[in-house]
Amino acid sequence: MSFNQSVIDEFRANQGKVGGYFEGSDLLLLTVTGAKSGEERTVPLGYVRHDDRLLVIGSNLGGPKHPDWYHNVLANPLVQVEIGADSFEAVAVPAEGERRDRLFAHVVAEEPGYGEYQENTSRVLPVVVLERSDPAPGEGPAEIRSLADKLVEVHVWLRGQLRHVSGEVDAYFATVAAHRGEGAAPAPGLGLQIRQHCLAFCQTLEIHHTGEDAHMFPALAAQNPHLKDVFDRLRTEHVTVARLQHELSVLLADISGADPERFRKELARMSQELNAHLDYEEESLLPLLSEIPFPPGPPAAA
């Protein structure tokens, strides 16, 4: 058994408490999706609190290369965080520029060892903000009892992330305009926060729609042939949303050079099409899905 795995096992067995090297430390478990393998990987990391967010540092003990988990969150920003007995989804957002420097100063004030790691390497240690992606209080079902509840939970998350991205886009382009008005180009990486949230949203949306097309829709259609037109429309809307998602991703790849009005227009189109699709899907399918328990129970005995 590897050292990391022994720490992970002890952490999970004792609600986040571990002994040995990490005894008394603020420790969390970060589960990421491999950039190349697509497999889930869990790593124990020290963290520092900053207001209501958690900061983790790509220190790699002051080594010359960024740790693997950092490359993975750049490719797949949606992560799972375990802290104490709590577990939640978060979007991993590396801080950039002045914000990174300010947050790193806070980290060093709390945990001076990170300052020593920085002194031992020529690379800039990444500061990654773990932004909890739970719905706002009062949004979504209070308890997941049926497949209808689960569908609404996913839809609430997608709508919330899309609103979040829209707000960040407005703030970003306002910052860009201010920099250009002063005759300076915007600092590199200012769009990274938008990229991470948009990527998390797009990846989740793609997984959700792929799962519906491959599994949920065929199963429901077989039992409800009178709803053929509904499922045909939903699949067609998936294709439309996927095309808009791709067009938005192309613009996102060079957001610093993107035309603000075009970017806002494409994002507004995505918002309009997706929200209309989610509304229609809920109107059409929630009555059926409310009869299906979630998570599904064991198969009935023969």
From TrEMBL:
It comes from the Bacteria. It catalyses: oxidized coenzyme F420-(gamma-L-Glu)(n) + a quinol + H(+) = reduced coenzyme F420-(gamma-L-Glu)(n) + a quinone. InterPro entries: F420H2_quin_Rdtase, Hemerythrin-like, Split_barrel_FMN-bd. SUPFAM superfamilies: FMN-binding split barrel. Residues 149-289 form the Hemerythrin-like domain. It holds the Pfam family F420H2_quin_red. Signal peptide: none annotated. Coiled coil: none annotated. Transmembrane segments: none annotated. Belongs to the F420H(2)-dependent quinone reductase family. This is Cation-binding protein. It comes from Streptomyces virginiae (Streptomyces cinnamonensis).
